[in-house]
Amino acid sequence: MTPTLERRLGPVDAAALVIANVIGVGIFTTPGIVASMVPHPGAVLALWICGGLLAFAGAMAYAELAVRFPRAGGEYVYFRETYGPMMGFLTGWTSFVAGFSGAIAAGSVGCAVFLGYFVPWLADTRPLVELRLGFFTLAVPPRTLTAIAIILMLSVVHARGLRAGRVLQNGLAGIKVTALVALIALGMASGRGSFGHFAASGTFRLSAWTAALIPVMFSYSGWNAATYLAEEIREPSRNLPRALGLGTLIVVLIYLGLNIVYLFALPIQQFDIHIGQNAATQLLGAAVASSLTALSALILLSSVSAMIVAGPRVYYAMARDGLFFASAAHVDSRFRTPRTAIFAQALWSCCLVLSGAFGPLLTYTGFAVVLFAGIAVASLFVTRRKFAGERRAFSAWGYPVAPAIFCVASFLIVVSSLREQPLASFAGLGVIAAGIPLFYWVQRARRSKPFVEQAEFDSPNVPASP
Questions:
Q1: CA-wise closest residue to 90 among 406, 422, 316, 429
Q2: CA 411, CA 421: separation in Å to the nearest integer?
Q3: Residue 140 bridge partners (DSSP)
Q4: Cα–Cα distance for residue pair 233/174, rounded to 1 Å
């Protein structure tokens, strides 16, 4: 009998995945960027609340979709069911090429940089080896080796089963949340700030407020992480909505708490890209502020770990439908994980680290995270009509108003990205569009020789692709 994924994760495990995936080191820098665009304390806090409400609306829409289609793959499944296999393939292709793999590469390099503060050799950029490959010279410094080691070690842990991976992921997420909550509590209790900073006045345009929502929304991205593992969550109709709601709510409270601490520490006119470090120094002293380096390394490690878990479930789902390499649909008979998909992602991530190509890829395709999320939430309206006569095990919060507002906000952000960064955005659209001929090539190859025996994976909720 062909081994399959098993439902071993509970709501806390899935919520921890959401928290780990969302909270990154950007929360120590992004508030400074936001404040420079909207120099008004009340408006800044309103932005983070608004972004949190939008994230929660999106999470609840995804929860209904995940309960309707409780299979591995997240947006890939929703796109396939609603818009057809090509749209599903394009979101999966983008996830593999840049979305997950590029973010894993960037996060692992960032983690190596922070570790270099404690062991300088780990972040050394002087090449140990240089290989001339035609017109290209491949330099391999210790920082690259450190990043690759992080990717491979985490991939091995998660390939060896949900039990080991769950302990690691929950532990990293727990330490991350505890440290950030402690930072908020100690900062507010220090008495070295001023509540007068909240009363400061400032002027801003509504257009600036809307533009500032873009980095806020990017800071909240990742709240859908648990849906990629929907096939491995126990009682998904109950636990998926709980996990998405709980995880997103905790993130919103932490983000709001940190912004309150920053405003307590410094006047908004002194906010800059180093706001996290500066606020910690002001409230807790230089010695404590220096510990943010260790916390930043841990935050990045937790985020990379979460992406290493989530991404392969997309490629596994694609392979199961014959739209990816057949071996990626293999489930390890002992550990019940998509081992081949995990190591395929690790290999490509390591290639991106070696080449340094992850930076441009993430710049080009960053807006695709918001674009695909908006399209996925829009698919909820289609599935509601398609299954109008059926009973819903879970209904999205605030439907139809909340999902509609999320979709409008997402598409406005995409339009703004196209207007403000046309070259990078259109390059990103080019990366996505490159998947179209690849899709037709895969379809032809599949008709001549199927990648995988589709009948093994048929289910009432997920019909075989045509």
A1: 429
A2: 15
A3: 129
A4: 19
Over residues 211-235, the pLDDT tens digits come to 888 899 999 999 999 999 999 999 9
312 contacts 338 by C-beta, under 8 angstroms: yes
Give the domain ranges of the chain: 11-452
The CA-atom distances, in angstroms, between 451 and each of 83, 382, 444 are: 22, 30, 11
- Provide the 10 A C-beta neighbour count for residue 458: 10
Phi then psi dihedrals of residue 233, to 5 deg: -105, 130
Separation CA 299–CA 302 (nearest Å): 5
Q: How far apart, in whole angstroms, are the C-alpha atoms of residue 70 and residue 62?
A: 11
319 has a pLDDT exceeding 60: yes
Assigned token pair, 342? 């995990």
Structure tokens at 357: 């190509």
SS3 content of the chain, % helix, strand, coil (to 5): 75, 5, 25
Task: Convert the pLDDT of each residue in 250-262 to its tens digit.
Answer: 999 999 999 999 9
Measured in Å, how far apart are the chain's first and last C-alpha atoms? 25
For residue 300 the two structure tokens come to 């990045």
Closest CA to 176 of 254, 122, 111: 254
Condensed to tens digits (0 to 9), the pLDDT of residues 364-378 reads 888 888 899 999 999
DSSP 195: G
Neighbours of 330 (CB within 10 A): 18
| 3 state SS of 131 | strand
> What pTM value is reported for the model?
0.92
Q: CA 297 to CA 151: how far, in whole Å?
A: 14
Q: Which of 122, 118, 93, 167 is nearest to 361 (CA)?
A: 93
Reduced to 3 states (helix: H, G, I; strand: E, B; else coil), residue 436 is: helix
Pairing of β 129-133 and β 136-140: antiparallel
Q: Is 371 helix (H, G, I), strand (E, B) or coil?
A: helix
Q: Distance between CA 113 and CA 4 in Å, rounded?
A: 38
Using an 8 Å Cβ cutoff, are 207 and 38 in contact? no
Q: State how far the Cα of 248 lies from the Cα of 283, in Å rounded to an integer.
A: 27
pLDDT at residue number 418 = 86
Is residue 105 within 8 Å of 352, Cβ to Cβ? yes
The alpha carbon of residue 252 and the mean position of all alpha carbons in its chain are separated, in whole angstroms, by 15
Q: Which two tokens stand for residue 109?
A: 């390099």
Residue with tokens 């922070």: 114
Q: Provide Rg for the chain, Cα atoms.
A: 22
Distance (Å, whole) CA 42 – CA 202: 10
Fold annotation for 11-452: Amino acid/polyamine transporter I (1.20.1740)
